[in-house]
Amino acid sequence: MAENKEEKPGEPKAVSADPAVNEMLCDCKELPAGTVWDRLAKQTPQCTFGLDGLCCRHCAMGPCRFDAKRDKFKYGVCGVTADTVAARHFVRMIAAGTAAHSDHGRGVAETFLAAAKGEAKGFEIKDEQKLLQIAMDLGIEIGSRDTKDIAIDVGTCAVAIFGSQHGPIPLLKRAPLKRQAIWKELGIEPRGVDREVVESMHRTTMGVDQDPLNLIMQGSRTALADGWGGSMLATELQDVLFGTPQPILGRVNLGVLEKDKVNILIHGHEPLLSEMIVVVAQDPSMVAKAKAKGAQGINLAGICCTANEILMRHGVPIAGNFLHQEVAIATGAVDAMIADVQCVMEAVARTAGCFHTKIITTNYRAKMNGAVHIQFDEHDAIGTARQIVEAAIENFPNRKQVHIPNVQCDLIAGFSHETINYLLGGLFRAAYKPLNDNIINGRIRGLAGVVGCNTPKVVQDSAHIKLVKELIANDVLVLQTGCAAQACAKEGLLLPEAAAKHAGKGLAEVCEAVGIPPVLHMGSCVDNSRILMAATAVVKEGGLGDDITDLPAIGAAPEWMSEKAIAIGQYFVASGARVIFGATFPVLGAPGFKDLLFKGLEKTMGAVWDFEPDPSIMARKMIEAIDKKRAALGIDKSKERVLYDMAMRRELDAG
Ligand code: MSK
Fold first, then answer.
1. Residue 480 sits in which domain range?
2. Gap from CA of 231 to ligand 1 centroid (Å)
3. pLDDT at 2 > cutoff 60
């Protein structure tokens, strides 16, 4: 578990709260391109115009810089202001994040359709009940029709949502009615995923949309196309194809790598191929091949969100989160790293060049110099998976020195919103009522979604761990996805026993009664759509208002770095949930646009953004926001905030 080392003068700055990473840094000293932390140090100080969203290079009259305090930098060459420039950047980040999630979603929808038609060997419908639920939500007739025909219609409709020109996209209907009315009134119901991304790119190009409010409305429409469109479709169709996750025991951290086995590390986001790699790696003929090369078997592990996908459905261990990708290779124990799309640093190929690791890219959209490319063929996924596993086995004898830190931790993952329903309500009367009741009676103070990445700008995992510990100590039930979930898992917070150790009395009572951890792992980045569904289910259960904005609930991303996080943040705000980001925020130099995001959106969306780099202050702000919602609902029985002082933190860390 992490030792939250406090910095001492003269000592090198700690880069991670994770002892496995700190142990590996000695092995990374000679890397020609260094590690992500070395490269950040070389890039520091970074350009403040860029940091604050104040550099425009959208046309060749620029680049232009902006500084409200200096006359020289008041206007760009075209006369554009800092607020418009920051708004355009922000909307472009939303568009990029939406595009990433949605291209993933489209790939899943296409494979789903091929599987439904019987054209994708190895894929099948695993969750029929969920298929029927989606069919109903998409307005597809069920009656006495054959499952195959329903699946073909669902697949066809899902693919069409990406290119649809005239919305609204159908899954918006899942949201609370009041929220749907707000979107309609504001004119921000997405028409189709691709259309919103294209329009955002158009409106942010030189000489088009010059009004920050108009821009953020389009940003909201695009983000909603992600949350209630591309991401939600990816999650739902993956569940139908591979099974809806249920609580499952797993392990996390570099210690899951095995010295005597062929280690295959799966990195990226799409579970389509990795599901097949899981199957192939267990094939006795493959295990025999590994043994013939001197290994004792084959060991799979994951990095980033693909890790979350295969953990939730198969219990495959997680080697680490985003900042682990280079240090994992430096163990010398990774025979192949399989990379599909997103969050794969270009540095991994260079790092791999210093060891024996083979980097294998599998998606034509994401190739890399120094990597081998084996294109994923959804019509023969098992064949592609075989090629990959064989390549890893072949590489096993090329290992040199191996150093695997003996650090790992158990965790429970797999809390889909359906599972939360069953766990809290029981199999025969599945409902969110017990959760709502416990929020109303104050045992659970509120809900917090703590999600997002790692960034080298924050001591790895430290903000996640500090924030989440303070939240659960104050009876806030935490929902997590992505690398944030992996950070807290490494700290042991995703285990039922964490409730007795770290949670407040009320939350601990609920967790102990139901047998759940105080921090629920709900999946990968696209699975933030599960949090939208859980929030909607709480609203629909009743007693806590009639819109997401009424709930004592809040979102946070204390160590974010990806554009995808901005898209997620905006679809939460547009859905009525306040969000707080840490580390850095890309509009701080544009006072007008910052004000619009941090205050102005309250009027239209009923929720705003906030920025707070200190996790303790962030916790305070989140608890205050939750208490404010409780007061508005009239359920504000006195609850003192437990203040975490240094002594308490040390005690927890020692425990
Ligand atoms: S992988 S987007 S670093 S959470 Fe989804 Fe982690 Fe952030 Fe990538």
1. 417-633
2. 14
3. no
